[in-house]
Amino acid sequence: MPRALISRDLKDEAQLIASPEDQNSDANGQDGYHEFTIHRGDEGVGLGPSRNLRVDNKVLSDLHPYVQTLSVSNLDSCVALENATFPEKERCSKEKFIYRLTTCPELSLGLYSTTGPDGAVAALPTYAHSRPPDSASPTKKSTLVAQVIATKCVSTTVTDESMEYPADWRNGTSLSEGQGHQENGRTIAVHSLAALPEFKGRGLGKIIMKSYLQRMETSGIADRIALLAHDHLIPYYEALGFVNIGKSKVQFGGGEWVNMSYTITEPTLGS
After folding, report:
1. Residues with Cβ within 8 Å of residue 253, at least 6 apart in sequence
2. N or C end of the chain, less CB within 10 A?
3. What is the DSSP string of 112-146?
4. pLDDT tens, 18-63?
């Protein structure tokens, strides 16, 4: 479940841009999705529809992070990151990852760092599942360091049903109405915001969540983003623009969750 592994002390901030328009048109990830780098940029240049991101300077000095849409081809890295981040009772199962990354991969996002065997992430749990970024860099690997995993639901908050998946989903004729991803839903249900504990306090969760909010705001596919949080993380999510809308009835992981909601203010498609 969502948990912030993020520094709130951002005294040394640098202006960043997260926008595909700032990259070469032939820059594509291995799963076929457009890949782009979060990088420094000159004021007013190439911003497109995206907002400016502000994160800790030191994050970029050794990680050079970039975001990329996740797919089922990233399964092992996603599972390793989840297991390294959350207590066992709050983890997403491997089968749920397969379902979510197969059914609605466009709703999940990964933050990567490309490094060699002696780089900052080489000893981390996701490195073993990493792949070279391209054929020209066989000694380097693109390693997952943070992720957002989500589906869509028809309710305005995350529910136990939205966190499940239909047992018969693989045959394409699911009879489990209300469970799992609902394509006609207008709420994006975030099931996991995770960043490697080894980088706690480096701002990685802030980077990926800001980028994720930008993407969803301009996509026109939803009216809100919902997630569950424990009490001590309410101020963190409120700082990102989420609103506390009360206690959740969800019993996953022992319950005791709070509903957080982010209203998408950009006009939706067709409006």
Report:
1. 1, 87, 89, 90
2. C
3. EEEE-TTSTTTTSTTGGG-B-SSTT-TT-EEEEEE
4. 333 233 333 333 333 333 333 222 222 222 233 334 444 444 567 8
**Is 123 within 8 Å of 89 (Cβ atoms)?**
no
Which of 152, 227, 237 is closest to 188 using CA atoms?
Answer: 152
Q: Which two tokens stand for residue 73?
A: 């081809």
72-118 confidence digits (pLDDT tens): 999 999 999 999 999 999 999 999 999 999 999 999 999 999 888 88
**AA identity, residue 140:** K
Select from 158, 28, 179 the least CA-distant residue to 103. Answer: 179
252: which DSSP letter? Answer: G
pLDDT band at 248 (very low <50, low <70, confident <90, very high): very high
Contact 50, 18 (CB under 8 A): yes
Strands (E), the chain: 13-17, 36-37, 39-40, 53-56, 66-69, 109-115, 141-153, 187-195, 224-229, 243-247, 258-263
pLDDT band (50, 70, 90) for residue 258 = very high
Partners of 34 in the β-ladder: 28
Bridge-based pairing of strands 141-153 and 109-115 is: antiparallel
Tell me how long the chain is.
271
Give yes or no for a contact between 157 and 226, defined as CB atoms under 8 angstroms apart: yes
Closest to 100 measured CA to CA, from 159, 179, 11 = 179
